[in-house]
């Protein structure tokens, strides 16, 4: 009976931790979507401003490109957050997609959508990890 009670408590604790993580990922996703929508509006407003001065047009073009580049980064993080939620649902969250070792909890706390352990992340940044 004691083992059954302990395993039920452990299962509840794990479910609670997963729910907390799911909420954190959802909050991060919402925040990034908000930033993305803001950047998109600013970029569109910059392209709508009419100016005859070539320097102003160059500045507007640079600012627009900068905003859209930020948006690309935010979109990539959104995709990684969505993938993390899928891994959470599949029970593979917290395992490196390359070497299948556990990703350290500190790394997951810092970057909850992390796909790789630190070593494999460094390899991925050098192009030495095949993306799946």
Question: What does this molecule look like?
Answer:
This protein has 132 residues and is an all-alpha fold. It folds into two domains: 24-92; 94-132, no CATH class. It contains four helices and no strands. The longest helix has 47 residues, at 2-48. The radius of gyration is 21 Å and the shape is elongated. The mean pLDDT is 82.
Summarize the structure.
The chain is 74% helix and 0% strand.
The class by helix and strand makeup works out as: mainly alpha
> For the report, how would you describe the main beta sheet?
none
Q: In percent, how much strand structure appears in the residues?
A: under 5%
Instruction: Summarize model confidence as the mean pLDDT.
Output: 82
Distance between the termini: 44 Å
Shape: elongated
Helix content: over 70%
Q: What radius of gyration results from the CA coordinates?
A: 21 Å
Order of helices and strands: HHHH
Q: Supply the number of structural domains.
A: 2
Low-confidence stretches: none
Number of strands: 0
Q: What is the helix tally?
A: 4
Give short descriptive properties of this protein:
2 domains
Task: Set down the secondary structure blueprint.
Elements (H helix, E strand, L loop, with lengths): L1 H47 L5 H37 L14 H6 L7 H8 L7
């Amino acid at each position: 009976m004691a083992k059954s009670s302990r395993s039920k408590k452990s299962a509840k604790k794990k479910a609670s931790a997963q729910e907390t993580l799911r909420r954190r990922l959802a909050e991060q996703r919402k925040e990034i979507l908000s930033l993305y929508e803001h950047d998109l509006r600013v970029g569109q407003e910059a392209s709508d401003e009419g100016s005859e001065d070539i320097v102003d047009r160059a500045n507007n073009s640079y600012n627009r490109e900068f905003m859209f580049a930020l948006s690309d980064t935010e979109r990539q993080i959104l995709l990684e957050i969505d993938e993390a939620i899928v891994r959470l649902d599949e029970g593979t969250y917290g395992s490196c997609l390359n070497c299948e070792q556990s990703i350290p909890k500190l790394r997951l706390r810092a970057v909850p959508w992390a796909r790789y352990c630190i070593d494999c992340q460094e390899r991925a940044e050098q192009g030495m990890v095949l993306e799946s």
